[in-house]
């Protein structure tokens, strides 16, 4: 199984690797997956007063496709409003990275990470969390 | 091998003309070379299409031949799939199979083996050296226990033959499977050794059709493959001692250097093992991601991400390794063509890859911050 060029790119030059202050009210942190499953993604967003995501950071324990999926997610998140971010679908990630069927679950986890980060932000700011899709593993 | 694809293209079973005799000569000579390597006679060698077929023939063949004596087989959880799947198949036909657990270092517990033996046990089959972690089992002691209770002892020695001294008499082996391509020979050919004396062992053929290989394995012989196998056996026998020393040293250098990385763990017993295998877990980074980072190196991983079934390595799990350490493992296999420069390159690149991936890993960050990861409630469970 040769890796797609895009997946390799995200691995060699990952975008937005890092950590935001999880205690800040303007930061939403999503932590999904489990070490036993071989996939853990932490995705964080910084949201301004206009509900725009001004910064996004990630760290991932997982295979190349998982790393690329979460890296791509942070790229897409920056500049979007929180509502626009909710519309990101895992199949968009699959298409962009040319993920094979056996790796689709990595993109699903990335989508979960986005929604989890948004929910954390919402709850911190007195809003109702959005219903997440069921666990995929 | 090449002449046997062209000018010496005869069928080794053709008794009546020179083409056949020439091919037969090539095969006979190969039998001698194989016999010399493992310490048996030419008549005790059955050529097959590989170790998988040899495992099938040995296990199913013994089961069918000795079913009046009993129906119990003992093996281990760390065996190759060729053995495990064959045993599972026989269970459907009524065989009773005990899958012995191994200790944390991968070795069989001899007392557990003895306790598992029954009057119905006809076969104990335990691999000589493990392909994933390199652990070498106490073969002499295991065969002694099998024989004490009247059972035959078989071993899948694919990773051991040609690399360490294997002698069917000294080791008390009644049946043995191995293949050419794990000892620098061609793919598509292997051997089942079947003992003829003390005791005389027989297996029921699994492939019928003309009675080749003393009625135990029909079918036209893969003459070029067999010739290649013979030569491989000869080369391995001549170079074994020096190669084992050279490879152990390279492997030890690799392991020692990589162990300088924090949170790295060598899997499997480090005293009783093959000279050419090293299996290391690098905590907090995932195996497939690591392999992608080391793309100039041909290695493998016990991570679930690398298997079609998305299950982590069952061998590592058998050692009691946690899932996350199984996901973080890399197997390095060394060989005849491995140079010290390559080992140095591997060390440097592996270290770079691990450090890079740890920068990307939320688990490594949490570990460094003193977070107790075992206390976290993960979203997926």
Short description:
Chain A has 137 residues and is of the alpha+beta class. Chain A has helices spanning 5-12, 64-77, 82-86, 90-97, 104-124, and strands at residues 27-34, 39-47, 53-61. In chain A, helix 4 crosses helix 5 (104-124).
Which features would summarize this protein structure in a list?
heterodimer, A: 137 residues, alpha+beta, Sufe protein. Chain: A, 3 strands, globular, B: 381 residues, alpha/beta, Aspartate Aminotransferase, domain 2, Aspartate Aminotransferase, domain 1, 2 domains, seven-stranded mixed beta sheet, four-stranded antiparallel beta sheet
Question: How would you portray this structure in words?
Answer:
The complex is a heterodimer of chains A (137) and B (381). Chain A is α+β, with helices and mostly antiparallel strands and 137 residues long. Chain A has a single domain (5-124), classed as Sufe protein. Chain: A. Helix content of chain A is 41%, strand content 19%. Chain A has five helices and three strands. Chain A has a three-stranded antiparallel sheet with strand order 1-2-3. In chain A, a hairpin with a 4-residue loop joins strand 1 (27-34) and strand 2. The longest helix of chain A is centred in the last third of the chain and has 21 residues, at 104-124. Chain B folds into two domains: 2-236, Aspartate Aminotransferase, domain 2; 240-375, Aspartate Aminotransferase, domain 1 (Alpha-Beta Complex), CATH 3.90.1150. Chain B has a seven-stranded mixed sheet with strand order 1-7-6-5-4-2-3, sandwiched between helices. The mean pLDDT of chain B is 95. Chain B is 38% helix and 13% strand. Chain B is an alpha/beta fold. The chains are: A alpha+beta (137), B alpha/beta (381). Chain A binds chain B through residues 3, 7-8, 11, 14, 17, 19, 31-42, 59-64, 66-67, 102, 112, 116, 135-137, and chain B through 284-289, 292-293, 303-306, 308, 310, 312, 322-324, 327, 359-365, 373, 378-381.
